[in-house]
Amino acid sequence: MRRALTFVVGVLTPAMVLAAEVEEHAGHHGVPWTKLTFSAVNFAIFIYILKRTAWPTLRHWVAERRVRIATALAEAERAKREAEALRAEWQRRLDRLEGELEAIRAQARADIAVEREQILTAARRTAEVIRRDAQRMAESEIRSAQEALRAEVAKQALAIAERLAPQRLTPADQQRFVREFVQQVERE
């Protein structure tokens, strides 16, 4: 209450001086002290009510608002730091990605070259095996054909010999053949 009275006196005195000056310039006679006093008392009551009722609520609201704003600013700062850290991490990943991609490409080229060489080596081995098998088959076919040809030639020669032998063989030739056959059997 003492503050309110100090405020009224502090405001009322300059207001009275101002009212006296306004009277001189406006051409009015006398200061409306009643009206001025009533307004000052009314203003003091208003300040008192404001201070007792609205001021604590207003102060509480401002304090809460300040805390909410400070919390929001702190949260925003934390989120900003996290976002910057995340951005920096992704930038590092992007920077490393080009190097990793080149390393992957180089590794793929090396793997392809190794695999190509393995495939070519396997193909050469397979071709060599096929060539050897074909050569063996050809040799076998040639031997079979030669044996068949020999058998056929022997068969034909035998047929010719059977036909010509009775006509050209003499008894002396027969004895000579028998002697040679016996000698040959004895040697073996």
3D architecture notes:
The chain is an all-alpha fold and 188 residues long. It has a domain at 2-123. Helix content is 95%, strand content 0%. α1 (2-26) crosses α2 (33-168). The chain starts with a helix and ends with a helix. The mean pLDDT is 82.
Kindly summarize this structure in a few lines.
With 188 residues, the protein is mainly alpha-helical. 95% of the residues lie in helices and 0% in strands.
- Helix fraction, binned, reads over 70%
> How many DSSP E strands?
0
Q: What's the helix-strand series?
A: HHH
Strand content: under 5%
Mean residue pLDDT: 82
- Total of DSSP H or I helical runs spanning 4+ residues: 3
Over the alpha carbons, how many angstroms does the gyration radius reach? 66 Å
- What separation lies between the terminal Cα atoms? 157 Å
Structural class: mainly alpha
Q: Major β-sheet, in short? A: none
Overall, the morphology is: rod-shaped
Which segments are poorly predicted (pLDDT under 50) over 5 or more consecutive residues?
Answer: none
